[in-house]
Amino acid sequence: METIGWLASVLTTFSFVPQAIKVIRTKDTASISLWMYSLFTVGILFWLVYGVMMRNGPMTFANVTTLVLAVIILRAKIKNG
Amino acid sequence: METIGWLASVLTTFSFVPQAIKVIRTKDTASISLWMYSLFTVGILFWLVYGVMMRNGPMTFANVTTLVLAVIILRAKIKNG
Question: Is ipTM beyond 0.85?
Fold first, then answer.
């Protein structure tokens, strides 16, 4: 069962890698929602705080990674519109 | 502390609402990554299975909601390219 949790965590975390690469390469963020990445980034920040408070290593690691990727996409959206 | 977990859950789940609305309205998905939503949808499916197996109601509810929204965005991406 823990394998499913780990698979889930790895998939949802690293799914943001191709999106981050795409916005960096193309500088096109027209169809990306600013609201989505604003809410999502704040949400991941809360998940990170939650993971740290629970002293949960894997949760903290996954959310640090997702936060970095989400911020890259959000910054590109703010910059490129 | 549970408040932080709930806030995190609500924010990351509902952040996909504005993105889903945007792709439905504009039919523009050019800058959205097909890889991201493919990996993310499978990842959320695993989170859902994990939540059901743990008999965790809030987790199951959050992941059903996110899955529906992710599938809407993924379908639009496949349809509109």
Answer: yes
